[in-house]
Amino acid sequence: xxxxxxxxxxxxxxxxxxxxxxxxxxxxxxxxxxxxxxxxxxxxxxxxxxxxxxxxxxxxxxxxxxxxxxxxxxxxxxxxxxxxxxxxxxxxxxxxxxxxxxxxxxxxxxxxxxxxxxxxxxxxxxxxxxxxxxxxxxxxxxxxxxxxxxxxxxxxxxxxxxxxxxxxxxxxxxxxxxxxxxxxxxxxxxxxxxxxxxxxxxxxxxxxxxxxxxxxxxxxxxxxxxxxxxxxxxxxxxxxxxxxxxxxxxxxxxxxxxxxxxxxxxxxxxxxxxxxxxxxxxxxxxxxxxxxxxxxxxxxxxxxxxxxxxxxxxxxxxxxxxxxxxxxxxxxxxxxxxxxxxxx
Length: 344
Fold this sequence. Notes:
By secondary structure, the chain is an alpha/beta fold. The chain contains eleven helices and 13 strands. The strands form four sheets. A seven-stranded parallel β-sheet has the order 3-2-1-4-5-6-11, sandwiched between helices. α5 packs parallel to α6 (about 155-170), α7 (about 205-215) crosses α11 (about 330-344) and α9 packs across α11 (about 330-344). It is globular, with a radius of gyration of 19 Å. It starts with 5 loop residues before the first strand and ends with a helix.
């Protein structure tokens, strides 16, 4: 262990993607500092992180939108070199039902963070964005230059607004902020140790945990929302990326910021596999790798869902040197391994 690890503040660090990023950060030689209010995560994630790393990670149980509490963290942790901002609500369907909560939390927490960082000389930000900013694209795959269109959900709009805020702040004459926007596609899977993974509170909003919970007998059946889309088999098509691959993209982004390799104050990268899989393909692949037969039925379309979207991942590979490594089958196998471990 190095004498002085570079500190990286990770908001939402006990969440699904955040917890995996914390592990990868530490293993890459950084000192992650977790902020999480546990509104959408479980304390058990901290135990999982500690078990993998063999050490506890400093954790502050606060709301990132709480200015006084956030200031206290920055004051208690001098010399933070950068921030990875994960903290956000992220369920498309829920955002349609609770739009105000999504704007307050997702946009509000970013505003509080951006106002705080200059006071403590923190100039580097990796922002957790989303492919939802593209809306319903005219053509596939989407590149970083694909025009953003009206989002299909309040969740997507919050990500568009956050990106706009970051661009506007960065354009200010006094700005010293350097940001990498990572537009995620659909993270799935779990750490190979099965000690951390996706742990939805209540009924899952995402496909894969609903699949694994159905296979485990926790849910009676899986509903596939719509089979009449203009896709090869009529079901939604998404770009499914293993969560550890996604976490590793953040490490590359942090290092790029610290090394000041970017020529612009804001850089944007798609983080996906570069190809799409339909919901039915995911279901069938899961059945193959797990040996479990899923009980599923076709239901009506769900408000806010885009028919199909997947990444052109060329820029991330050429500029960041980042490329995904894990197949859909291996990703789903890790999800099932995690689900089985949860039952023990």
